[in-house]
Amino acid sequence: VGVLSLPEGEDPAELAAKGPERVAAALEGTATAVEFQIAYLLSEADTSTPEGQVEAYRRTFPLLMQLDDRFLRYSYVRDIVAPAVRLSADLIEQELDRQIASTGAGTRGSRPAAGRSAPTPAAPGRVAQPRDPQLRLERAVLQAAIQHPEIEVEGWEQVEPEDFTAEASRTLFTALTAGPWRGLAHLLERLPDDATRARIRALAVAPPTTPPDPHKLAENVMRLRAATLARDLAEIRAQMARLNAVVDSDRVRALSAERQRLERDRRALLEG
Q: What is the rounded distance in angstroms from the CA atom of residue 198 to the CA atom of residue 27?
């Protein structure tokens, strides 16, 4: 279901009477019903202070808790909520999961099925897999770069720090690309502190999540870059949902052009 935002006091017939360009500009702002409601809740919030940021993302919880699909909930958190409040998507989802567990909401698809046990915590000394699919992907890409630096992975040279959502991932990527590979010890020297070095040592010896196949590794890199474009697209859609298609028509057209460019880039990336 899509939601089309119309200027205040204007009905569809009045919009249509203003010509096809106005209609096209308005249609570019179409969003899913959930996406529209989330964007509206966030647009009403003051995120200029830490308290405001927290209050803003918590506003979306009652709506998100109605979604049974945990991965769909997380997609909205990652693509819309977290960028709007400039906070970690993983931390927001953890709080949302705790609230769902305490109230019993959104249980389908978010708890172990009958007869299955909950996931066992990682054993001491092992690197735990992140729950966030984006963080798992970032971990896989960086782990492969450390464990198999001899493999030339297609698309690696196009990867940017902005493709990584976690600060730790960006730190490691920056260290990896600061110069030629000279071994793990040299990489560790580029890292900022002992805690980071300890995590990277553990990552370097952890079982790989992706086999050392150039095609598999290139697919991970492609997915990483495509996720960045998806986040950029979600941000543009959220901005367009907050705009008045008539009063802000120039801005809507500019965002529409950028949206179309990003969609072309993402489609070309995914289709190879």
A: 51
Asked, for residue 53, whether it belongs to a domain, the answer is yes
Task: Please tell me the distance from the alpha carbon of residue 239 to that of residue 29, in angstroms, as a whole number.
Answer: 9
Distance separating alpha carbons of residues 226 and 158, to the nearest angstrom: 12
User: Number of folded domains in the chain?
Assistant: 2
Angle at 236 between CA 234 and CA 240, to 5 degrees: 115
Is residue 177 included in any domain, yes or no? yes
The number of beta carbons lying within 10 Å of the beta carbon of residue 106 is 21
Cα R_g (the chain), whole angstroms: 22
Are residues 102 and 137 located together in one domain of the fold? Answer: no
Give the pair of three-digit tokens for residue 166. 């976690």
As a whole number of angstroms, the distance between CA 177 and CA 155 comes to 14
Judgement on whether residues 95 and 143 belong to the same structural domain of the protein: no
Structural domain of residue 48, as residue ranges? Answer: 30-106
- Using CA of residue 11, residue 12, residue 17, residue 23, what is the dihedral sign? positive
CA proximity to 170, closest of 88, 95, 85, 269: 88
The segments of the chain whose pLDDT lies below 50 read 1-6, 8, 15, 23, 26-30, 107-127
